[in-house]
Design a protein that fits this description.
Elements (H helix, E strand, L loop, with lengths): L4 E3 L5 E3 L7 H18 L7 H11 L4 H19 L3 H6 L5 H8 L4 H130 L20 H9 L4 H153 L9 H8 L7 H7 L1 H4 L3
Antiparallel strand pairs: 1-2
Length: 462
Protein backbone atom coordinates (compact mmCIF):
# COMPACT_ATOMS: atom_id res chain seq x y z
CA UNK A 1 0.00 0.00 0.00
CA UNK A 2 0.97 3.65 -0.43
CA UNK A 3 -0.22 6.58 1.60
CA UNK A 4 -1.89 6.50 4.98
CA UNK A 5 -2.73 9.19 7.48
CA UNK A 6 -0.86 11.43 9.85
CA UNK A 7 -1.86 13.52 12.84
CA UNK A 8 -2.09 17.27 12.36
CA UNK A 9 -2.73 20.15 14.77
CA UNK A 10 -5.39 19.44 17.39
CA UNK A 11 -5.15 15.68 16.93
CA UNK A 12 -6.96 15.77 13.55
CA UNK A 13 -6.30 13.13 10.92
CA UNK A 14 -4.52 14.63 7.93
CA UNK A 15 -3.45 12.97 4.68
CA UNK A 16 0.13 11.83 4.84
CA UNK A 17 2.68 12.24 2.12
CA UNK A 18 2.67 8.46 1.77
CA UNK A 19 4.39 5.67 3.56
CA UNK A 20 8.12 5.52 3.54
CA UNK A 21 8.27 1.98 2.21
CA UNK A 22 9.51 0.76 5.59
CA UNK A 23 6.54 -1.03 7.26
CA UNK A 24 8.23 -1.07 10.65
CA UNK A 25 8.75 2.69 10.61
CA UNK A 26 5.21 3.27 9.36
CA UNK A 27 3.73 1.03 12.09
CA UNK A 28 5.69 2.88 14.74
CA UNK A 29 4.37 6.18 13.34
CA UNK A 30 0.81 4.83 13.53
CA UNK A 31 1.37 3.96 17.20
CA UNK A 32 2.57 7.51 17.86
CA UNK A 33 -0.39 8.92 15.93
CA UNK A 34 -2.93 6.85 17.87
CA UNK A 35 -1.28 7.83 21.15
CA UNK A 36 -1.42 11.52 20.16
CA UNK A 37 -5.13 11.18 19.33
CA UNK A 38 -5.88 9.64 22.71
CA UNK A 39 -3.83 12.32 24.47
CA UNK A 40 -5.48 15.21 22.60
CA UNK A 41 -8.96 13.77 23.28
CA UNK A 42 -8.04 12.92 26.90
CA UNK A 43 -8.87 9.28 26.35
CA UNK A 44 -7.39 6.14 27.88
CA UNK A 45 -5.10 4.44 25.38
CA UNK A 46 -4.01 0.80 25.05
CA UNK A 47 -0.87 0.48 22.91
CA UNK A 48 -0.89 -3.34 22.95
CA UNK A 49 -2.55 -3.89 19.51
CA UNK A 50 -0.08 -1.51 17.86
CA UNK A 51 2.89 -3.00 19.67
CA UNK A 52 1.76 -6.47 18.64
CA UNK A 53 1.69 -5.37 14.99
CA UNK A 54 5.15 -3.85 15.35
CA UNK A 55 6.37 -7.13 16.79
CA UNK A 56 4.81 -9.06 13.90
CA UNK A 57 6.53 -6.74 11.41
CA UNK A 58 9.78 -7.19 13.23
CA UNK A 59 9.28 -10.94 12.94
CA UNK A 60 8.85 -10.56 9.18
CA UNK A 61 5.13 -11.38 9.07
CA UNK A 62 4.04 -8.12 7.43
CA UNK A 63 7.28 -6.77 6.00
CA UNK A 64 7.19 -8.75 2.74
CA UNK A 65 3.61 -7.81 2.00
CA UNK A 66 4.21 -4.11 2.53
CA UNK A 67 7.44 -4.24 0.53
CA UNK A 68 5.57 -5.89 -2.33
CA UNK A 69 2.90 -3.19 -2.19
CA UNK A 70 5.57 -0.50 -2.17
CA UNK A 71 7.27 -2.16 -5.14
CA UNK A 72 3.97 -2.30 -7.01
CA UNK A 73 3.46 1.38 -6.32
CA UNK A 74 6.88 2.13 -7.76
CA UNK A 75 6.03 -0.01 -10.77
CA UNK A 76 2.84 1.94 -11.43
CA UNK A 77 4.82 5.16 -11.21
CA UNK A 78 7.24 3.75 -13.77
CA UNK A 79 4.34 2.74 -15.96
CA UNK A 80 2.90 6.22 -15.66
CA UNK A 81 5.98 8.36 -16.11
CA UNK A 82 8.64 6.28 -17.90
CA UNK A 83 8.74 5.81 -21.58
CA UNK A 84 7.12 2.64 -22.87
CA UNK A 85 10.15 1.64 -24.92
CA UNK A 86 11.74 -0.23 -21.99
CA UNK A 87 8.64 -2.42 -21.67
CA UNK A 88 8.41 -2.84 -25.46
CA UNK A 89 11.97 -4.12 -25.52
CA UNK A 90 11.05 -6.72 -22.91
CA UNK A 91 7.79 -7.73 -24.60
CA UNK A 92 7.47 -11.22 -25.96
CA UNK A 93 8.09 -11.72 -29.63
CA UNK A 94 5.90 -13.55 -32.12
CA UNK A 95 6.37 -17.29 -32.21
CA UNK A 96 8.49 -18.82 -34.94
CA UNK A 97 5.47 -20.36 -36.67
CA UNK A 98 3.67 -17.03 -36.78
CA UNK A 99 6.77 -15.34 -38.17
CA UNK A 100 7.12 -17.95 -40.89
CA UNK A 101 3.47 -17.62 -41.79
CA UNK A 102 3.71 -13.87 -41.82
CA UNK A 103 6.78 -13.95 -44.07
CA UNK A 104 5.04 -16.01 -46.70
CA UNK A 105 3.67 -14.04 -49.58
CA UNK A 106 4.45 -10.80 -51.29
CA UNK A 107 3.82 -8.57 -48.22
CA UNK A 108 6.05 -10.46 -45.80
CA UNK A 109 8.10 -7.48 -44.69
CA UNK A 110 5.10 -5.24 -44.18
CA UNK A 111 3.18 -8.06 -42.50
CA UNK A 112 6.12 -8.78 -40.19
CA UNK A 113 6.38 -5.13 -39.17
CA UNK A 114 2.66 -4.85 -38.62
CA UNK A 115 2.56 -8.14 -36.71
CA UNK A 116 5.43 -7.01 -34.50
CA UNK A 117 3.66 -3.72 -33.85
CA UNK A 118 0.41 -5.49 -32.96
CA UNK A 119 2.22 -7.91 -30.67
CA UNK A 120 4.19 -5.14 -29.00
CA UNK A 121 1.00 -3.15 -28.49
CA UNK A 122 -0.72 -6.20 -27.09
CA UNK A 123 2.11 -6.85 -24.62
CA UNK A 124 2.23 -3.18 -23.68
CA UNK A 125 -1.48 -3.11 -23.08
CA UNK A 126 -1.17 -6.37 -21.09
CA UNK A 127 1.57 -4.88 -18.90
CA UNK A 128 -0.38 -1.70 -18.34
CA UNK A 129 -3.49 -3.70 -17.55
CA UNK A 130 -1.54 -5.87 -15.10
CA UNK A 131 -0.15 -2.79 -13.34
CA UNK A 132 -3.53 -1.08 -13.23
CA UNK A 133 -5.20 -4.25 -12.02
CA UNK A 134 -2.57 -4.61 -9.31
CA UNK A 135 -3.08 -1.02 -8.16
CA UNK A 136 -6.84 -1.48 -8.10
CA UNK A 137 -6.40 -4.73 -6.17
CA UNK A 138 -4.02 -2.95 -3.81
CA UNK A 139 -6.55 -0.16 -3.39
CA UNK A 140 -9.24 -2.71 -2.53
CA UNK A 141 -7.06 -4.68 -0.11
CA UNK A 142 -5.66 -1.44 1.32
CA UNK A 143 -9.18 -0.12 1.88
CA UNK A 144 -10.05 -3.33 3.71
CA UNK A 145 -6.87 -3.16 5.79
CA UNK A 146 -7.39 0.55 6.56
CA UNK A 147 -11.01 -0.07 7.48
CA UNK A 148 -9.94 -2.87 9.82
CA UNK A 149 -7.24 -0.74 11.40
CA UNK A 150 -9.58 2.23 11.77
CA UNK A 151 -12.22 -0.05 13.25
CA UNK A 152 -9.67 -1.57 15.63
CA UNK A 153 -8.22 1.81 16.67
CA UNK A 154 -11.44 3.73 17.15
CA UNK A 155 -13.31 0.72 18.44
CA UNK A 156 -10.62 0.42 21.11
CA UNK A 157 -10.86 4.15 21.83
CA UNK A 158 -14.64 3.94 22.10
CA UNK A 159 -14.37 0.92 24.39
CA UNK A 160 -11.81 2.72 26.56
CA UNK A 161 -13.97 5.87 26.61
CA UNK A 162 -17.10 3.94 27.56
CA UNK A 163 -15.15 1.99 30.17
CA UNK A 164 -13.82 5.25 31.59
CA UNK A 165 -17.36 6.66 31.49
CA UNK A 166 -18.69 3.61 33.34
CA UNK A 167 -15.91 3.90 35.89
CA UNK A 168 -16.69 7.61 36.37
CA UNK A 169 -20.41 6.82 36.74
CA UNK A 170 -19.55 4.11 39.27
CA UNK A 171 -17.24 6.51 41.12
CA UNK A 172 -19.94 9.19 41.26
CA UNK A 173 -22.52 6.66 42.47
CA UNK A 174 -20.18 5.28 45.12
CA UNK A 175 -19.21 8.77 46.28
CA UNK A 176 -22.72 10.19 46.54
CA UNK A 177 -24.23 6.98 47.90
CA UNK A 178 -21.62 7.22 50.63
CA UNK A 179 -22.46 10.90 51.19
CA UNK A 180 -26.16 9.98 51.37
CA UNK A 181 -25.34 7.22 53.84
CA UNK A 182 -23.17 9.55 55.93
CA UNK A 183 -25.88 12.23 55.99
CA UNK A 184 -28.52 9.70 57.02
CA UNK A 185 -26.18 8.19 59.58
CA UNK A 186 -25.48 11.61 61.10
CA UNK A 187 -29.20 12.35 61.04
CA UNK A 188 -29.94 9.08 62.81
CA UNK A 189 -27.33 9.94 65.44
CA UNK A 190 -28.86 13.38 65.87
CA UNK A 191 -32.33 11.84 66.18
CA UNK A 192 -31.01 9.43 68.81
CA UNK A 193 -29.33 12.28 70.68
CA UNK A 194 -32.60 14.25 70.68
CA UNK A 195 -34.59 11.18 71.73
CA UNK A 196 -32.15 10.28 74.51
CA UNK A 197 -32.01 13.89 75.72
CA UNK A 198 -35.74 14.56 75.89
CA UNK A 199 -36.67 11.07 76.98
CA UNK A 200 -34.20 11.64 79.81
CA UNK A 201 -35.68 15.04 80.58
CA UNK A 202 -39.21 13.62 80.52
CA UNK A 203 -38.19 10.74 82.72
CA UNK A 204 -36.33 13.06 85.11
CA UNK A 205 -39.33 15.41 85.29
CA UNK A 206 -41.69 12.48 85.89
CA UNK A 207 -39.40 11.04 88.54
CA UNK A 208 -39.10 14.43 90.26
CA UNK A 209 -42.86 14.96 90.05
CA UNK A 210 -43.61 11.53 91.49
CA UNK A 211 -41.03 12.10 94.21
CA UNK A 212 -42.53 15.51 95.08
CA UNK A 213 -46.06 14.12 95.15
CA UNK A 214 -44.95 11.21 97.28
CA UNK A 215 -43.15 13.57 99.69
CA UNK A 216 -46.17 15.86 99.80
CA UNK A 217 -48.45 12.94 100.59
CA UNK A 218 -46.09 11.86 103.30
CA UNK A 219 -45.95 15.42 104.66
CA UNK A 220 -49.75 15.68 104.60
CA UNK A 221 -50.13 12.35 106.36
CA UNK A 222 -47.50 13.32 108.89
CA UNK A 223 -49.14 16.72 109.39
CA UNK A 224 -52.56 15.12 109.88
CA UNK A 225 -51.06 12.58 112.24
CA UNK A 226 -49.36 15.36 114.19
CA UNK A 227 -52.59 17.36 114.43
CA UNK A 228 -54.62 14.30 115.43
CA UNK A 229 -52.00 13.37 117.98
CA UNK A 230 -52.04 16.90 119.36
CA UNK A 231 -55.84 16.89 119.49
CA UNK A 232 -55.89 13.51 121.17
CA UNK A 233 -53.19 14.57 123.58
CA UNK A 234 -55.14 17.73 124.41
CA UNK A 235 -58.32 15.75 124.90
CA UNK A 236 -56.58 13.04 126.90
CA UNK A 237 -54.71 15.49 129.09
CA UNK A 238 -57.49 18.02 129.48
CA UNK A 239 -58.24 18.52 133.18
CA UNK A 240 -61.77 19.62 133.91
CA UNK A 241 -62.36 22.28 136.54
CA UNK A 242 -63.00 20.92 140.08
CA UNK A 243 -62.81 24.20 141.95
CA UNK A 244 -66.49 24.15 142.77
CA UNK A 245 -66.85 20.46 143.44
CA UNK A 246 -67.18 19.31 147.09
CA UNK A 247 -67.23 22.83 148.46
CA UNK A 248 -68.35 22.48 152.11
CA UNK A 249 -71.33 24.67 152.98
CA UNK A 250 -72.00 24.84 156.74
CA UNK A 251 -75.57 25.35 157.81
CA UNK A 252 -75.58 27.07 161.14
CA UNK A 253 -78.50 26.94 163.68
CA UNK A 254 -79.37 29.18 166.53
CA UNK A 255 -78.56 27.53 169.80
CA UNK A 256 -80.69 27.60 172.92
CA UNK A 257 -81.30 31.12 173.90
CA UNK A 258 -80.49 31.80 177.63
CA UNK A 259 -83.56 33.93 177.76
CA UNK A 260 -85.66 30.83 177.33
CA UNK A 261 -84.54 29.45 180.65
CA UNK A 262 -84.98 32.81 182.38
CA UNK A 263 -88.40 33.25 180.95
CA UNK A 264 -89.34 29.81 181.91
CA UNK A 265 -88.03 30.46 185.37
CA UNK A 266 -90.18 33.49 185.63
CA UNK A 267 -93.09 31.54 184.40
CA UNK A 268 -93.33 33.59 181.41
CA UNK A 269 -94.10 32.11 177.97
CA UNK A 270 -91.33 31.23 175.33
CA UNK A 271 -93.31 31.28 172.09
CA UNK A 272 -92.03 34.63 170.97
CA UNK A 273 -88.51 33.51 171.69
CA UNK A 274 -89.01 30.23 169.92
CA UNK A 275 -90.50 32.02 167.03
CA UNK A 276 -87.55 34.32 166.88
CA UNK A 277 -85.18 31.35 167.03
CA UNK A 278 -87.07 29.49 164.37
CA UNK A 279 -87.07 32.56 162.18
CA UNK A 280 -83.33 32.95 162.65
CA UNK A 281 -82.69 29.30 161.94
CA UNK A 282 -84.81 29.55 158.80
CA UNK A 283 -82.80 32.55 157.71
CA UNK A 284 -79.54 30.73 158.20
CA UNK A 285 -80.88 27.70 156.31
CA UNK A 286 -81.88 29.93 153.46
CA UNK A 287 -78.43 31.40 153.43
CA UNK A 288 -76.87 27.93 153.36
CA UNK A 289 -79.16 26.82 150.52
CA UNK A 290 -78.26 29.92 148.57
CA UNK A 291 -74.60 29.17 149.00
CA UNK A 292 -75.12 25.60 147.81
CA UNK A 293 -77.05 26.81 144.75
CA UNK A 294 -74.40 29.37 143.92
CA UNK A 295 -71.64 26.79 144.22
CA UNK A 296 -73.67 24.41 142.01
CA UNK A 297 -74.12 27.11 139.37
CA UNK A 298 -70.47 27.92 139.45
CA UNK A 299 -69.62 24.22 139.07
CA UNK A 300 -72.05 23.86 136.14
CA UNK A 301 -70.56 26.91 134.47
CA UNK A 302 -67.10 25.52 134.98
CA UNK A 303 -68.15 22.19 133.48
CA UNK A 304 -69.77 23.95 130.51
CA UNK A 305 -66.62 25.95 129.96
CA UNK A 306 -64.56 22.77 129.95
CA UNK A 307 -66.90 21.27 127.34
CA UNK A 308 -66.68 24.40 125.25
CA UNK A 309 -62.91 24.25 125.35
CA UNK A 310 -62.97 20.59 124.27
CA UNK A 311 -65.46 21.30 121.54
CA UNK A 312 -63.44 24.28 120.32
CA UNK A 313 -60.34 22.14 120.33
CA UNK A 314 -62.08 19.44 118.26
CA UNK A 315 -63.48 22.02 115.87
CA UNK A 316 -60.10 23.65 115.51
CA UNK A 317 -58.50 20.25 114.84
CA UNK A 318 -61.13 19.42 112.22
CA UNK A 319 -60.68 22.82 110.61
CA UNK A 320 -56.92 22.47 110.59
CA UNK A 321 -57.16 18.98 109.08
CA UNK A 322 -59.55 20.28 106.43
CA UNK A 323 -57.25 23.20 105.72
CA UNK A 324 -54.28 20.79 105.52
CA UNK A 325 -56.17 18.67 102.99
CA UNK A 326 -57.11 21.75 100.95
CA UNK A 327 -53.55 23.04 101.07
CA UNK A 328 -52.33 19.60 99.96
CA UNK A 329 -54.75 19.66 97.05
CA UNK A 330 -53.59 23.15 96.08
CA UNK A 331 -49.94 22.17 96.31
CA UNK A 332 -50.57 19.01 94.27
CA UNK A 333 -52.34 21.09 91.65
CA UNK A 334 -49.38 23.47 91.45
CA UNK A 335 -46.95 20.57 91.23
CA UNK A 336 -49.05 18.91 88.51
CA UNK A 337 -49.29 22.18 86.61
CA UNK A 338 -45.54 22.73 86.87
CA UNK A 339 -44.89 19.14 85.74
CA UNK A 340 -47.30 19.52 82.81
CA UNK A 341 -45.69 22.82 81.82
CA UNK A 342 -42.23 21.27 82.00
CA UNK A 343 -43.38 18.28 79.97
CA UNK A 344 -44.97 20.53 77.35
CA UNK A 345 -41.84 22.66 77.21
CA UNK A 346 -39.74 19.52 76.66
CA UNK A 347 -42.14 18.38 73.93
CA UNK A 348 -41.92 21.79 72.20
CA UNK A 349 -38.13 21.82 72.44
CA UNK A 350 -37.99 18.22 71.19
CA UNK A 351 -40.25 19.07 68.25
CA UNK A 352 -38.14 22.13 67.39
CA UNK A 353 -34.88 20.16 67.44
CA UNK A 354 -36.42 17.30 65.46
CA UNK A 355 -37.70 19.81 62.91
CA UNK A 356 -34.27 21.44 62.68
CA UNK A 357 -32.61 18.03 62.28
CA UNK A 358 -35.09 16.99 59.57
CA UNK A 359 -34.61 20.29 57.74
CA UNK A 360 -30.84 19.94 57.96
CA UNK A 361 -31.06 16.40 56.58
CA UNK A 362 -33.28 17.53 53.71
CA UNK A 363 -30.84 20.35 52.94
CA UNK A 364 -27.86 17.99 52.98
CA UNK A 365 -29.60 15.39 50.84
CA UNK A 366 -30.72 18.11 48.43
CA UNK A 367 -27.17 19.45 48.17
CA UNK A 368 -25.87 15.91 47.66
CA UNK A 369 -28.48 15.28 44.97
CA UNK A 370 -27.51 18.52 43.22
CA UNK A 371 -23.85 17.57 43.41
CA UNK A 372 -24.62 14.08 42.09
CA UNK A 373 -26.65 15.51 39.22
CA UNK A 374 -23.96 18.06 38.35
CA UNK A 375 -21.20 15.46 38.29
CA UNK A 376 -23.34 12.98 36.36
CA UNK A 377 -24.17 15.71 33.84
CA UNK A 378 -20.51 16.68 33.55
CA UNK A 379 -19.49 13.03 33.14
CA UNK A 380 -22.17 12.51 30.48
CA UNK A 381 -21.12 15.70 28.68
CA UNK A 382 -17.46 14.71 28.81
CA UNK A 383 -18.21 11.21 27.54
CA UNK A 384 -20.40 12.60 24.75
CA UNK A 385 -17.62 15.05 23.83
CA UNK A 386 -15.02 12.30 23.80
CA UNK A 387 -17.22 9.98 21.75
CA UNK A 388 -17.96 12.85 19.36
CA UNK A 389 -14.21 13.44 19.03
CA UNK A 390 -13.69 9.74 18.36
CA UNK A 391 -16.47 9.82 15.79
CA UNK A 392 -14.88 12.83 14.12
CA UNK A 393 -11.47 11.14 14.22
CA UNK A 394 -12.97 7.98 12.73
CA UNK A 395 -14.61 10.01 9.95
CA UNK A 396 -11.35 11.89 9.28
CA UNK A 397 -9.36 8.68 9.24
CA UNK A 398 -11.90 7.06 6.92
CA UNK A 399 -11.75 10.11 4.64
CA UNK A 400 -7.95 9.97 4.60
CA UNK A 401 -8.03 6.25 3.85
CA UNK A 402 -10.55 6.88 1.06
CA UNK A 403 -8.25 9.55 -0.36
CA UNK A 404 -5.33 7.14 -0.32
CA UNK A 405 -7.47 4.51 -1.99
CA UNK A 406 -8.58 7.03 -4.57
CA UNK A 407 -4.95 7.88 -5.28
CA UNK A 408 -4.30 4.26 -6.19
CA UNK A 409 -7.45 4.13 -8.31
CA UNK A 410 -6.46 7.40 -10.00
CA UNK A 411 -2.99 5.98 -10.66
CA UNK A 412 -4.56 2.86 -12.15
CA UNK A 413 -6.84 5.03 -14.29
CA UNK A 414 -3.81 7.06 -15.44
CA UNK A 415 -2.00 3.88 -16.41
CA UNK A 416 -5.00 2.76 -18.43
CA UNK A 417 -5.29 6.19 -20.03
CA UNK A 418 -1.55 6.25 -20.86
CA UNK A 419 -1.82 2.72 -22.25
CA UNK A 420 -4.72 3.79 -24.44
CA UNK A 421 -2.83 6.88 -25.60
CA UNK A 422 0.37 4.91 -26.22
CA UNK A 423 -0.90 1.63 -27.67
CA UNK A 424 -4.37 2.52 -28.76
CA UNK A 425 -7.49 0.51 -28.17
CA UNK A 426 -7.16 -3.25 -28.48
CA UNK A 427 -8.40 -4.59 -31.82
CA UNK A 428 -12.04 -5.53 -31.80
CA UNK A 429 -13.92 -8.15 -33.80
CA UNK A 430 -15.92 -5.56 -35.69
CA UNK A 431 -13.23 -2.98 -36.54
CA UNK A 432 -9.88 -4.80 -36.65
CA UNK A 433 -10.67 -8.47 -37.20
CA UNK A 434 -9.82 -8.28 -40.87
CA UNK A 435 -6.52 -6.49 -40.09
CA UNK A 436 -5.59 -9.11 -37.50
CA UNK A 437 -6.41 -11.93 -39.92
CA UNK A 438 -4.38 -10.25 -42.60
CA UNK A 439 -1.45 -9.72 -40.20
CA UNK A 440 -1.43 -13.12 -38.62
CA UNK A 441 -2.73 -15.18 -41.55
CA UNK A 442 -1.67 -13.29 -44.69
CA UNK A 443 -2.28 -16.32 -46.92
CA UNK A 444 -5.95 -16.61 -45.90
CA UNK A 445 -8.10 -15.50 -48.80
CA UNK A 446 -11.60 -16.41 -47.50
CA UNK A 447 -14.51 -14.14 -46.64
CA UNK A 448 -15.04 -12.46 -43.27
CA UNK A 449 -17.71 -15.00 -42.39
CA UNK A 450 -15.30 -17.82 -43.20
CA UNK A 451 -12.59 -16.12 -41.11
CA UNK A 452 -14.94 -15.93 -38.12
CA UNK A 453 -15.54 -19.64 -38.36
CA UNK A 454 -11.87 -20.46 -38.92
CA UNK A 455 -10.41 -18.08 -36.27
CA UNK A 456 -13.08 -17.81 -33.49
CA UNK A 457 -10.60 -16.92 -30.74
CA UNK A 458 -9.08 -14.14 -32.83
CA UNK A 459 -12.58 -12.85 -33.54
CA UNK A 460 -13.32 -12.95 -29.80
CA UNK A 461 -10.25 -10.80 -29.15
CA UNK A 462 -8.29 -13.55 -27.41
Amino acid sequence: MTGGFKIGAGGKFMPSAGKTGDPLHDAEQELIAASDIATSQKLPFDPKPYQARIDRIRNGIERKEDQAIAAAARDQENLRYEKTQERLDAALKLTADEKAAALKGAGAAAAQKKADKLEADRKGRAGAKSGADFLESSAASGATSSAERIKELFGSLETDANTAGDEETSRIKTLFDKLDGTANELSDKEKKRITDLYDGLDESAKTQFDSNIDQLNKDLVQGADTMNAAGKSFADNFQGSTAFEGVPVQQFETGANPLIGALQAQGAGTSEVDAAIASENQGMKGTADLQKWMIGQLNTGSKNFDSSVKNASSAALAANLQDLTARGTTIKGGMTRDYTNAKNANASARSAEESDAARELRTQLSDIALGRGAQESTAATNLASVLAGIKTGRADATTDADKERQKLLDAAANIRANSLATYGAPPTAKLNFAQQVAAKHPNFKGTTAEAKRKFPKLFAGK
